[in-house]
């Protein structure tokens, strides 16, 4: 009996895999038959398939790439239905017709296609980026100089610094440096680009430059503390290099210009181009002209560029026979980047105080992070993950928001639980009119783009204002109610008085910084996330009904701030 039972058990073990595969084949065959039958039903116009219900899609998602998560949570007036007109369902006789089924499926395919193309444009695959970069590299090649050591404290290539943690290529770095008139371009860590006019002193073994370029498979972009250096050639034959020289103003000259500025030049018939070219080659961000004298340097405590003078005073100085008699000078910003404050790192030990950088979306949180990172030298974290910000050098985006390795953490959250997780917070507040417009632009055109006139005049804009305006008010009110220790910063005040307000923020974060570093931040104040000018619209986006709603929220928030002994909202907020 036992022998027979053993044989039966052995037989079952052999056949269990066969039974499993037979079951899987049966299910697959059934699925294929079902799909084929559905296709035949649509093609033959069978009325047996029910199509009485059109697909409900939220307004925010129809015609747009990816729906905003908050919009899905608060869909507003309700969903529209694909397949009807203006939210109405098709006529009854059309609901079951094969033509309507084909039309409905065509609409769904188009919706998916639009979503797919939007997704591809935002999240370009590495293979595509690499292919484009390789093709572009063939058009523009610099001379490879070798692999060199890279010391972040005494960096040789420090004229300009760029990051692209997803699409960096050799050609992209070479072009960026060539456009700014630099001689050398160096790449490190596969994603960092450095420009300069002096070749690094210490060379390394070729195999130590072993980091693959993030946007170009098969190409080397330096390594860990190693630079792949290229001598930059012209972009194209006869093409003009872009040399952005910005007029900063007329300023009172310091008492001893030679002690204040590290480099100088005396040149008869001196021009702005001559002085700017000289200072760019010396890798200084400021070109200062007094008569026939050219000086190069940085903004410092002795020459802070805070109090400009009337331009006529500089005109008289330029016409003075003796340059020494001139008390005023002209100041220009060269294409060279001020790199005294570009070094950043994670905290070496976990922070004991968990600090939030809280704001309503569109209130300038990214800009504030840029200022804080460059002022303190430490990365900021984020409650979310934004790939676009990470790819542009905000490395704290990928760090877990509760790691406590960052100086503060970006958040747009409100509510008792989310707020009480933090020990303290910098609460950044911006004019709701400007915040709403900035967030609407970001939602439909990214960090640097603008929403189209069609977006502004569509149903999405009034729905957006109705839901987001209340969020602007509740965000501030919740942080005032549940926040443990707050520093209130108004975006407009930070923009107007950058150094004093940034000092307050840095002291609140318990970090000590030098005045020169703060002046460096002011010199690099815009960063990489400023929209190029205000796109003028030929219409007023806010209706009177919207203004009445927003103004009520403004008055409510202003009263709450004063009730907590904080400074009220700036006068420009109310009324509009």
TrEMBL record:
SUPFAM superfamilies the record matches: P-loop containing nucleoside triphosphate hydrolases
Annotated SMART domains: WSC
Domain of life: Eukaryota
Keywords: Repeat
Signal peptide extent: none
WSC domain location: 141-233, 244-341
PROSITE patterns per UniProt: WSC (PS51212)
GO molecular function per UniProt: sulfotransferase activity
Family assignment from sequence similarity: Belongs to the WSCD family.
Record-given protein name: WSCD1 protein
Record organism: Formicarius rufipectus
Organism classification: Eukaryota, Metazoa, Chordata, Craniata, Vertebrata
């Amino acid at each position: 009996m036992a022998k027979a039972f053993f044989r039966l058990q052995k037989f079952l073990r052999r056949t269990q895999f066969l039974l499993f595969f037979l079951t899987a084949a049966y299910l697959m065959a059934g699925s294929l038959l079902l799909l084929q039958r559905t296709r035949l039903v649509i093609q033959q116009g069978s009325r047996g398939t029910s199509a009485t219900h059109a697909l409900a899609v939220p307004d925010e998602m129809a015609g747009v790439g990816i729906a905003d998560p908050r919009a899905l949570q608060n869909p507003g007036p309700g969903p529209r239905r694909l397949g009807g007109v203006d939210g109405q369902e098709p006529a009854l006789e059309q609901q079951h017709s094969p033509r309507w089924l084909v039309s409905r499926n065509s609409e769904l395919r188009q919706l998916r296609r639009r979503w797919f193309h939007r997704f591809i444009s935002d999240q370009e695959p590495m293979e595509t980026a690499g292919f484009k970069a390789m093709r572009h590299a063939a058009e523009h090649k610099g001379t490879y100089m070798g692999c060199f050591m890279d010391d972040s404290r005494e960096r040789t290539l420090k004229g300009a610094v760029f990051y692209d943690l997803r699409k960096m290529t050799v050609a992209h770095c070479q072009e960026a440096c060539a456009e700014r008139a630099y001689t050398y371009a160096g790449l490190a860590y596969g994603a960092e680009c450095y420009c300069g006019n002096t070749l690094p002193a210490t060379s390394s073994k070729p195999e130590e430059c072993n980091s693959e370029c993030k946007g170009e498979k098969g190409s080397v972009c330096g390594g860990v503390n190693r630079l792949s250096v290229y001598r930059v050639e012209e972009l194209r034959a006869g093409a003009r290099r872009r040399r952005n020289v910005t007029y900063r103003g007329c300023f009172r000259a310091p008492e001893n210009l030679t002690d204040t500025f590290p480099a100088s030049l005396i040149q008869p018939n001196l021009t702005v181009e001559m002085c700017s070219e000289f200072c760019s080659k010396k890798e200084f961000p400021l070109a200062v002209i007094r008569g026939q004298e050219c000086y190069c340097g940085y903004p410092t405590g002795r020459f802070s560029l805070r109090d400009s003078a009337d331009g006529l005073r500089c005109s008289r100085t330029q016409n003075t026979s003796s340059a020494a008699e001139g008390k005023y000078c002209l100041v220009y910003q060269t294409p060279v980047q001020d790199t005294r404050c570009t070094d950043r790192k994670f905290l070496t030990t976990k922070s004991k105080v968990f600090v939030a950088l809280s704001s309503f979306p569109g209130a300038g949180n990214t800009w504030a992070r840029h200022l804080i990172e460059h002022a303190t030298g430490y990365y900021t974290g984020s409650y979310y993950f934004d790939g676009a910000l990470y790819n542009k050098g905000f490395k704290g985006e990928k760090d877990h928001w509760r790691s406590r390795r960052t100086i503060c953490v970006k958040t747009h959250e409100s509510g008792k639980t989310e707020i009480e997780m933090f020990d303290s917070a910098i609460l950044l507040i911006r004019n709701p009119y400007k915040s709403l417009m900035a967030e609407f632009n970001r939602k439909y055109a990214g960090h640097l783009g603008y929403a189209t006139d069609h977006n502004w005049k569509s149903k999405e804009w009034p729905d957006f204002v109705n839901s987001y305006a209340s969020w602007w008010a509740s965000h501030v009110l919740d942080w005032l109610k549940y926040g443990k220790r707050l520093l209130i910063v108004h975006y407009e005040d930070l923009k107007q008085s950058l150094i004093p307000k940034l000092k307050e923020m840095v002291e609140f974060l318990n970090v000590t910084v030098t005045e020169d570093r703060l002046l460096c931040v002011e010199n690099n104040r815009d960063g990489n996330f400023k929209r190029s000018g205000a796109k003028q619209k030929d219409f007023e986006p806010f209706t009177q009904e919207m203004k009445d709603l927003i103004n009520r929220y403004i008055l409510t928030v202003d009263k709450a701030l004063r009730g907590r002994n904080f400074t009220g909202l700036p006068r420009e907020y109310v009324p509009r």
